[in-house]
Fold:
Amino acid sequence: MRDLSPTSSIFGTIPEAPPDAILGLNTQYRSDPSPNKVNLGVGAYRTADGQPYVLPVVRRVEQALADDPSTTHEYLPQDGLKEFCNLSASLILGAHSPAFADRRSVTVQALSGTGALRVGFTFVARFLSPQTAVYIPKPSWSNHKNVVVQSGLPPAKEYRYFDYGTGAVDINGMVEDLTAAPAGSIVVLHGCAHNPTGADPSHEQWERVLQVVQEGGLVPFFDNAYQGFASGSLEEDAWSVRRFVDAGIDMLVGQSYAKNMGLYGERVGALTVVSSEGGNNEAILSQLKAIIRAMYSNPPKHGAMVAAAILGHAGMFAEWEEELRKMADRIRDMRQKLRGALVKNGTPGNWDHIVNQIGMFSFTGLTAAQVELMKNKYHIYMTSNGRISMAGLTEDTVEYVADAMKDAVVSLKKGVIHNM
Structure:
């Protein structure tokens, strides 16, 4: 008979997993008693007072749902709320996308952007090959690597993306690495507001990437977490995705409404599979539903209803667009003020990249040692690669952060990227 004493538990030898780099950082911040602490690691929008923000249009829809006696908590189908799926596909692909006319796109609701990636990569592993190579940018959002492996695929490979000398996209390195990728490989692309660098390809550079993808038989997987939140324009932030769809290639597209609607905790997202030719939508949908059924059965309802109400109503949609512009403007303002404070206090180096980058994050060029100094001495928290959330800055903290950055750069000059 097996000994079931506590010392011989079958779970007793399970090792402790390392803390998530970003979520662990937030835990450290919350436990810090300093009144001067600043959190530049959180990937969520904050007001000019540093507080979480619920969009007024979102609040109004939630109240209307609460007051409506016909609102229920019944299960959704595996593929989610149909209206939400249709409106999400239209938002990212464009209302008049050829993918709709040719019946070559399928959209399912997902658990925000991460869930879209997880379902999409599982679909790839099952119906392309479990040995499919996945290429992600270097650097990229840290969870990309985790999701790829957990989906049953080999560890992700990296392609060059960021030029540490200029603070911009290393387009030549990117093209060279993707040209060498085997046909059928999945290439993860950030549709806009690249995380963590804030450096996006220009339209001309996207054309070069598209050419490599077409000639090499690669399959793009666009991760779109910031549509409308990056430039303030929903149309501009969807340009890259729509250009690739118009080219008539096989691809996948993930969407999240965490950032652009502030629905962080509701886990609202979508996955769209776009085929190079129509005719197999029902089969694709059936397999996506089967994957979702085994993974989490069906998605949550409330957030999808909120998003669908806003997306489907012209007046509320316009109000949402205006909110997006305001949020994007505040982030641009913080970029200008941080750069201005660094120039004013004489911090060594060129800080133009802070205003040239886009979206929530900026890749500062600070080293891990400099980041650690700022945390220990000034209680300023950011990821060890020097990425900061511009939304975490306020009028009251921007000079404090700039002065701490100057101290870190001057005190620990080794490894500083002076020409960024």
Remarks:
- The chain has 17 helices and 13 strands.
- Residues 58 and 306 are 7 Å apart (CA to CA).
- Confidence is low (pLDDT under 50) at residues 415-420.
